[in-house]
């Protein structure tokens, strides 16, 4: 799976670079990062608090025309949700929250449309590869992490999403962005106690980027 993943990335970046050169356009390589506010949603999911984490990665913007670009990305994305524990009075005790951490390598394939100079809207599919899964009983502190082995996990290793966003790119290559991604498939494996549970990843991302 890992070899196929990296081979796919090489093919994507190689193909888009060749196309950009053949069309006499300039592809821009860049780095990006920001904050994630993530949870899971669905008909079978109650109210969960969001987990605050981060995203960090690389992208390549391929101009197709003056107003339209294709932008493949590779991002590390910290996702999951927070469970608010309850005290003896059945009230939420925010000092003892537990984080369920689902961390992915995400591959968004974004179509960008520049509405006016600098201001753009974007949309596209996103494919996620789970790299780790943990329960953190002491968020924000050292220790408290329980790693869940892939053989014992109820969560699938692959996830598909749709991403929508907007941003502003300055002339110097610096950009500000906001994006929402929503799962298209349930995160839980078949043949487990959660196989019929409607549960999908839901993530808000706010960040910065710089193009070289």
Automatic annotation (TrEMBL):
Residues 19-188 form the Outer membrane protein beta-barrel domain. It comes from the Bacteria. This is Outer membrane protein with beta-barrel domain.
């Amino acid at each position: 799976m890992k070899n196929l993943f990296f081979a796919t990335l090489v093919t994507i970046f190689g193909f888009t670079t060749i196309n950009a050169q053949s069309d006499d356009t300039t592809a821009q390589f860049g780095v990006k990062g920001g904050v994630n506010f993530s949870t899971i949603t669905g008909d079978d999911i109650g109210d969960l608090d969001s987990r605050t984490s981060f995203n960090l990665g690389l992208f390549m913007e391929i101009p197709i025309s003056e107003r339209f670009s294709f932008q493949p990305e590779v991002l590390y994305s910290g996702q999951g949700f927070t469970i608010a524990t309850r005290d003896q009075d059945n009230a939420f005790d925010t000092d003892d929250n537990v984080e369920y951490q689902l961390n992915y390598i995400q591959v968004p394939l974004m179509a960008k449309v520049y509405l006016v100079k600098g201001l753009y809207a974007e949309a596209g599919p996103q494919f996620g590869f789970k790299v780790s899964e943990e329960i953190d009983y002491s968020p924000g502190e050292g220790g408290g992490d329980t790693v869940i082995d892939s053989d014992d996990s109820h969560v699938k290793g692959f996830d598909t999403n749709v991403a929508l966003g907007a941003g502003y790119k300055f002339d110097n290559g610096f950009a500000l962005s906001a994006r929402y991604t929503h799962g298209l498939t349930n995160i839980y494996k078949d043949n487990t106690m959660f196989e019929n549970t409607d549960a999908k990843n839901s993530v808000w991302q706010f960040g910065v980027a710089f193009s070289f």
